[in-house]
Amino acid sequence: MNRDARRILVAIGMAGMTMVATLTANAQALPERRPLWVPDHVFAQIGTAEDARMAAVGVGWEVPALRGFVFGNSSGYVEASIGRWVADISDGSRSSAWVTQVGITPVLRWHPFNDPWWFTEAGIGVNVLAPLYRSSDKRFSTAFNFGDHVGIGVQLGEDHRQELSLRLQHFSNAGIKDPNPGENFLQLRYTVRR
Fold first, then answer.
1. Single pTM value for the model
2. Residues 140-161: pLDDT tens digits?
3. Domain residue limits, the chain
């Protein structure tokens, strides 16, 4: 593993530990907080890439609001997901390759002060893809990959317990090993909060 890859892993690990520490510290101050292992929301998403499609489900744990961040409020959550990818392979047999994806991602979210019903978010996490992903034009060299995303969404309903978001997510191994073509998915996510 090269030096840059190690630095990225250390930075992600430190960010994840900071979010978990914040969650743990702030959870004790919140009244009637569920146990930490009980998720705050569940989600389902679908996505498409140039030669692949994906579907995933997952859960998330909220990090209490950080408040007052550049004309709005910021908050965060840590999500765990499991999904399936299918890629078309044009090797003469017109076959498909299936991949299972498991990941964990810390996410930072921002709500504007004047319109708190919509949000933007960004996150970077770690994923394991098994077997190695391949499509007609791409072949990953590692099962371990990073998944970073940006997204925009709206909260629905009177109590804002439902969300619909559009996300762009990139998966690659950050240059740990070649080839590293990466894959980009456009995703639609539906979330329900407890």
1. 0.79
2. 999 999 999 999 999 998 888 9
3. 3-193
